[in-house]
Task: structure prediction
Amino acid sequence: MDNFVTFCRNVFVPVTNVCRNNCGYCTFRRDPEDSQAKLMKREEITPILEQGKKAGCTEVLFTFGEYAEEVPQYKEWLTEIGYSNTIDYICELCKIAIDIGLLPHTNAGVLNYTEMEELKPLNASMGLMLETTANLAAHEGSPGKVPSTRIKTIRYAGDLQIPFTTGLLIGIGENLDDRINSLLSIADLHEEYGHIQEVIIQNFTPKPDTLMADMPSPTEEEMMQTILIAREILPDDIAIQVAPNLIDPYLLIQCGANDLGGVSPTTIDWINPEKEWPSVSGLKEMVREMTLKERLPIYPQYIKKGWYSDTLKNLIDSLADEDGYRK
Ligand code: SF4
Result:
């Protein structure tokens, strides 16, 4: 493995927090009647993108609740802003981001093949956490969290040659065998399609007022063990990512983690709003003797393989150095 740790400078845009699922640990999701429920408008999003570009970001992470269209009030909101479906709106947002000079990375939950196909030319990479291959109480009432459904979306991404981010959520009721099975499933998908650029090993953090508020976070030992196993199971070309705002990454890096994910100088972590991103100098301190290297939302090997559209070519060329990292 290389003797450096990577990260990406990004802008985090939570386009909607309306979601058909109801995960036991989530504080992001809102019912449409909740005063904090939202569908962000283009006029609201554009200045956030411009500010991120000015701050040196290369990626915009667009996140969504899953298939919000299954919630009637959301459909009305979408119609009011001039769109008949979410995918058309995502495509529009991606085009705005590309014009501003940011590479889109969309995570909109499970999607079908046609939806992924529409998004591919406008995204440098896409993502969907597998979370686990186990059927857990945490996911009761969440049709999109059926493991086979998520694997299908990851498979579509492979078939479409979309550089892809997935990962495990650790500590939501799964056991060690479940973690191993989840990693083996990801390794199998990568063996078939070669499209998994990074696997996030994310520690569950309990939040007040959720069903899982009293569940403990995984211990540091469990996280270290999972990363050692992940490094054993996953091919070397897949980066292992940990979230530096959720856990001190240093010991996990010793176990094989080599990426710190997207860190934003201008926006908060909307999924874990109570956990502040470290600054880039903070990241440097965290990795101590290791070198910190900035990457784009598309990893160097996929730039070399040309797994991006003509629409993104000029922007990628302008942002990447000759090795495929940030210029
Ligand atoms: S799918 Fe995501 S946004 Fe929806 S309830 Fe689950 S964790 Fe929350």
The beta strands are 4-16, 59-64, 103-107, 125-127, 164-170, 196-203, 239-241, 259-263, 291-294. Residues 19, 21-23, 26, 28-29, 65-66, 109, 142, 144 surround iron/sulfur cluster (CB under 6 Å). The mean pLDDT is 97. The chain has one domain: 4-319.
